[in-house]
Amino acid sequence: MNTTHPKFFLNIKEDMKNSLQFKLGVVTKIVFKKMNAQLVQEGIPVLAEQLPILMVVYFQEHAMTQQDIANVLQKDKAGIQRSVQTLHKDGFLKIESDIEDKRKNLVTLTPSGKFVCERIQSLVIAFDNRVMEHFTEEERKTFMSYLDRVAAVAEK
């Protein structure tokens, strides 16, 4: 095959546009953009990219270390640390030194953080409902099962 022919690049471009990574990336970008706009509209000074950190801490029954959060979210500790510091500075997270190991920081929600998490939950559910109302119940279940299967296969 002649790899210098323009048609070859067109096919690669089309293949890339239809790739799983590209499609998921487009959807993620749109969802985060819409969610960020909604958060601003609601006067919630949190970015959609920070929501997973808040929600992980919100749903835990005990304080977590930054490493625990990084492990749950499968993100690098440095990135989590920056976001935790920002959320702490904004008054949503409390950071305290671990009594047993002073090298570790324990992270919990402040009352303001709990309030924001509860508000965000209702926004996420409403957003999800607005998107999913365009699908039948069967299509929703199938779509979610496909996403679960993609995650499982990709994780292997």
TrEMBL record:
GO terms for molecular function: DNA-binding transcription factor activity. SMART domains: HTH_MARR (SM00347). Transmembrane segments: none annotated. PANTHER family: HTH-TYPE TRANSCRIPTIONAL REPRESSOR YETL, TRANSCRIPTIONAL REGULATOR, MARR FAMILY. Residues 17-152 form the HTH marR-type domain. It comes from the Bacteria. This is MarR family transcriptional regulator, repressor for mepA. It comes from Dyadobacter psychrophilus. GO terms for biological process: response to stress. It holds the Pfam family MarR_2. InterPro entries: HTH_MarR-typ (IPR000835), MarR/SlyA-like (IPR039422), WH-like_DNA-bd_sf (IPR036388), WH_DNA-bd_sf (IPR036390).
